[in-house]
Fold:
Amino acid sequence: MKKYILVLLGALGIGGQLFSKVVVVEGKYQNKNLFVQNGFAASGVGFCTYEVIVNGRVATDEINASSFEIDLAQFQLKYGDKVTIEIKHRDDCSPRILNPEALKPKATFDATYLSVSNGGLLTWTTANENGSLPFIIEQFKWNKWIQVGEVQGVGTQTENSYSFQAELNSGENRFRIKQVGYGALPKYSRTVTCVSVVPPLTFSTNKSSDDIVFSGQTMFEVYDIYGQIVKKGFGKQISISNLQKGHYFLCYDNSVTEFKKK
Structure:
């Protein structure tokens, strides 16, 4: 992912500039160029930007104008290559990048293979990734898709392989992976399913109503009667001592039920 940083050099600059600053832009090459609004220096003499460096090499673009284009094609970059751009400018003005999103990757992966074992090991292979975006692993439970893990994507268009060990609930388990890139809807894989031999879990509350105890480790969520989540996590026990008296909804294992805090 690209970051936009303003760095004060506070030292002698190139070309006789007494003080200078640098706008640094980082990202992945998306076969697009950057456009910069330049403007005059505050003194009225010369333009704000005096040098552009791309991946350590000086760009040859004409920058003595109120706006200019940084032509990235001249650096023989390949789609998805890392790009670092330094725009050096005078201290009394600041250029503005008009399309910073040009270096932000979108979710474009193709899941050429996706499988889940009976033990919950999710494995997948992708092609056509266009930047290093995280793969989000989702599991369908409690009538909704829930994020249960994350694996960082390699980001290259060649074939890449990944794996993630998921915690299974009792009965059927459904999984999918997704990526969220810049300026686009999430991209999803198909769904894969396995059936677990793990027995269904149960729960109980102690006499003081301070704890909920499960018969095994589980992911859980607790909602109040207004649908607001008040507890979530993973474990074998939940402390509910700080909840107000009343009715609550409890999601655990593959079940949704109710309980009353007395």
